[in-house]
Specification:
The complex is a heterodimer of chains A (332) and B (244). Chain A is α/β, with parallel strands linked by helices and 332 residues long. In chain A, 37% of the residues lie in helices and 28% in strands. Chain B has one domain. The chains are: A alpha/beta (332), B mainly alpha (244).
Chain lengths: 332, 244
Amino acid sequence: MPAIRTQGLTKTYRVADKKPGFVGTVKHFIKRRHREIQAVKAVDLTIEPGEVVGFLGPNGAGKTTTLKMLTGLVHPTAGAVSVLGHEPFKRKAELLKQITLVMGNKQQMIWDLPPMDSLHVNAAVYGIEEKEAMRRVEVFAELLGLDEELTQPVRKLSLGQRMKCELVAALLHHPKVLFLDEPTLGLDLNAQTAVRSFLKQYNEEQQASILLTSHYMADITALCPRVVVIHEGALLYDGSLEGVVQRFAPLREVKLDLAAPVEDAVLNRFGEIEANEGRVARLLVQREALTDAVGRVLAELDVEDLTVTDPPIEDVIARLFDSGNNKGETTP
Amino acid sequence: MEYRANFVLATISSLASMGGALFALWALLRTEYAMNGWSFNQALIVVGIYTMLDGLQQTLLAPNRQQISEFVRNGTLDFVLLKPIDSQFWLSARKVSVWGVPNLFLGLGLIVYAASFRLEPAVDAANYVRLLVPLAVSITIYYALGYLLSTLTIWFTKLANVTHAMHALLEAGRYPVAAYPGAYRAFFTFVLPVAFMTTVPADVLLGRGEFTWVLGGLVIAAALLVAARLFWRYALRFYTSASS
């Protein structure tokens, strides 16, 4: 049985439409206008137990709405959804005890109390025996490098420390499916790395499925062999991480170390010039034409070194979303 | 007891508010005006019960009610809904506040004082025990009404005014329903069951409570409780959660 399965999952929101300014406010008060927004359109998704999937898409693409439907917070408008064999919106305790949701911009811990108090509450809520709960906290704290932070009021903690504590609170009940919405939002590099390796270890030890959204590609490349790309509510891609590059980046980058500088006019014959700085030049070449172009470069130019790389995945994704936003315009 | 000044102020405010109610009652009844069978002392008991009820709700109900709208507004209701625990229970029993305690004791004091003399038949301990049932009914009604209104925040997000309006209407419970003209009496019995919240308990304490009224109160309380529950579950279908 897959951990998560959705078929034709759809969510339509009705939102108030208000013109700016005072006149707009008055008009809005007298006669409300509403718009329907299709946040998620017919999403089909299957995730197996133990799989870690990166969920990519620009802001407002429908990632969070999808996560909220999968966790049962939001009722789907149409379509079928099943998590561990349950319909999440029924919010059966049996399911809730096996899933968790972490949101980088919201927190469940009680602001004025130390995290430990919130952890005790969670242990009680999830019916975890006191001793066992404290053992788990210890293990998690060790992995995340937490110590006295657990007994300081939450409001005194830094963002990174707070997020780590949030993770402990969210995973205390050893959930089987993790929904992580920007868990590294705003964290510094050290904290990001700590969170990442923690999640990786948790995934391996508990064989838990993880669906993760992040705007930091490093999170995705470090954790997710598989990615799902959503744009304007619809699935654009579902497959391996490398596949994204192949599918959405038809160009490869050829870097040349030349014996002597070559003019743009000459380089132009082999591919699109990305940079030409003295003896170092970078060209973008269509994937299909690559072997041919490289052969010609080696034959016609005096090349000391030549490397072919994929453009960085950040660029690919950024370009992908960009091209989606300006539909009709062709981007190279 | 970290906020001592606040506590003293709460006590003073309770005293002033009850003083006002007593003055009104005294002004009304000093001229031997017959309030449909309620003497001054008997009416005092209603004021006492109202004050006590208000103290109870300030301690147990109000703090939780206020939090619901907060949770909806900033989206932390998400975490409540994700817990394998009844969300209504969690939201209703999360907080207690000490600010209602002065009212609680003032009300109790007033009841005991008013019941201690010049009453026929005399109020004895058994009457106090019997008072517990209608008192439980009134706090249940208060809770259910409050929760029903708070549930509306799922749609409207900010509803503090509605709670104030409810509070103002329930203030009618300060005086015996018999003191009001017929139309109001019907309204406060059948539409907003204020009669069951203060007048019926007072009748019971005075040893003249009628079984049907107590039973009626129980039925209303149970019905409102069920309604609050169903309405909450219905409302959650429309919860869209604050944006991320």
